[in-house]
Amino acid sequence: MPVDLDRRADVAVVGAGIMGAAVAWRLAQRGLSVVLFEQFKLLHTRGSSHGASRIFRLAYEQVDYVLLAQDALPLWREAEKALAQELLMTTGAVDFGPDFHLEPLARALAAAGESLERFRNSEMRARFPWIRVPEGWGAIFHERGGVLLADACRQGLTELARGQGAVICDETAVTALRVAAAGVEIETGLEEWAVSKAVIASASWSDRLLAPLDLSVPLTITREHVGYYAERVPSDVIPFIWHAGSASPEIYGLPNGRTGLVKIAHHGSGPVTDPDSEVSADTRLLAPVNEFVRQTLDSLDPHPAMVETCLYATSPDDHFVIDRVGPLVLCMGFGGHGFKFAPAIGELAAKLVTDVSAVVPERFAHSRFAKRGAA
What we know:
Blueprint: E1 8-14, H1 18-29, E2 34-37, E3 53-56, H2 63-83, E4 88-90, E5 93-97, H3 99-111, E6 117-119, H4 121-127, E7 138-142, E8 146-149, H5 150-163, E9 167-169, E10 176-180, E11 183-187, E12 192-200, H6 206-210, E13 220-229, E14 241-244, E15 251-255, E16 262-266, H7 287-296, E17 306-314, E18 321-325, E19 328-332, H8 342-354, H9 367-374
Parallel strand pairs: 1-2, 1-12, 2-9, 5-14, 12-19
Antiparallel strand pairs: 3-8, 4-8, 5-7, 6-7, 10-11, 11-12, 13-16, 13-17, 14-15, 15-16, 18-19
Helix pairs in contact: 1-5, 1-8, 2-8
């Protein structure tokens, strides 16, 4: 089928989850003509970006993640200002665990110039009365953590892209990509587009687009379960986001936006799945979380009031894939911890599109998988 030369743009973005929306915003803001494709309806619940809330935390063991979160924060505020609405509720964030877990977090936060407070086990009950932790555990608190209003964020960044001139094509599946002399040809089944560059931000559906190009990103797709727990007595008892990083299972929790429930989940514990399958939530998979709530969070009812699922698309080393490969920019592999960084990742991907000298941290490079295979 010949390309319809009337359907042209500077850049196509495939996937309108939080990452695709962020990339489209940052590209359109530069004055480029952008088309954003989404195979489902906008704000669908089939992928990784839906729901009322996501964590915004700066505590990571690797300094470059702390710096990336610091880059994201003013961009979230820029989006809030442009939309005239709140996207990020600042609550503070606390990490619990033994010293061997907390020490790398403290070092990375300090290296990035981020203020923090340390608490010994004997100080825990007074500072965080809503949680019981094992002997020997302490905590790190950083005040700039918070809760992202996830659905509002995704809708807001999409609208910012549209407001800057991006064309939004939802319910439009990209069925084929072809690298051509002038860039990339994109087929949707209804029409074809010719673009200079394409950003692939299709998360769990990326492989089917990349495989025909002999381009592989080894992502594992899992279906994760999240429980929403009610307070026994309504209060502001859990005002912070928190992360028990050395718990077994590894648990995180946060106030669920403005719903009055507390969102708690076991990070990265879901079964491998087909992203096209529509599977009901299996409440049995929340048994470890329910037990954690029962043992450590006595202010909550340990039986979830609501259960949701979402997809993780995770790389083998749990680091992101943000890289340029010819006229394509790969933006995927966020594995349940990328949402907080979205506008900064959108900015980084936009630089890869527009600036040939732009580089990414080595840990995000696509080439690392080839090196691992050679080893």
